[in-house]
């Protein structure tokens, strides 16, 4: 099994606020995104790919106030977006890095690999959204409680169909230089990363944190999720 960074997740209380945050942080507006009927969310995307991270992109995501999720009653949205504490933090401090997603060749096998580490990464769900270029389809792991796990440092898993969203994205001028994670149980997190074959995300011991460093037209930009 071999995994790679697919995208970084920026949660926003409101998608327009997320767009303004992106412009203030990177100096450019994110590209178009779409709606996710299954979860009642919508997003905007920005390509951040490099040779090291060939299909990486940034996702700014928020609950769509006009949409009702089609997912079964009693289940929660992905990325902890229904969590009251997370939403309160976004209301106080604005959009922020909260999670990342790893692309795997076989989502079912990757879930089983984590289960052998006694980690319940959630069920593999079929999801899709319409784009001007056609329908995007993927399989993604989402727990019924919506939890990211390990304070967002353990990636959600995604298996794309024949089309990847970054294929049609314009060059943003922003490049992901590195992503590092920290967790008090660094050994457990490192073992989980190894189980899915994710080798280029260094893990250290410390308070839960994601740290992403970017090269941008404005110079180096660092996003730190410490305290997530």
Major sheet description: 8 strands, mixed
> Helix-strand pattern, N to C?
EHEEEHEHEEEEHEEE
**Helix content range of the residues, please?**
10-25%
Number of strands: 12
What percentage of the residues does DSSP assign to strands (E)? 35-45%
The number of distinct helices, counting runs of at least 4 residues, comes to 4
Q: Can you tell me the residue ranges where pLDDT is under 50 for at least 5 consecutive residues?
A: none
Spatial strand sequence of the major β-sheet: 2-3-4-1-5-8-7-6
Residue-averaged pLDDT: 94
- Structural class of the secondary elements? alpha+beta
Whole-Å distance between the termini? 29 Å
The rounded Rg comes to 16 Å
The 3D shape can be described as: globular
Kindly describe this structure.
It is a single chain. By secondary structure, this protein is an alpha+beta fold. Helices cover 18% and strands 37% of the residues. It has 4 helices and 12 strands; from the N terminus they run βαβββαβαββββαβββ. It has helices spanning 15-26, 84-93, 107-115, 186-196, and strands spanning 4-11, 31-36, 41-47, 57-63, 96-103, 123-131, 134-142, 156-160, 175-183, 203-205, 209-216, 219-224. The strands form 2 sheets. Strands 2-3-4-1-5-8-7-6 form an 8-stranded mixed β-sheet. A hairpin with a 4-residue loop joins strand 2 (31-36) and strand 3 (41-47). The longest helix has 12 residues, at 15-26. The protein is globular, with a radius of gyration of 16 Å.
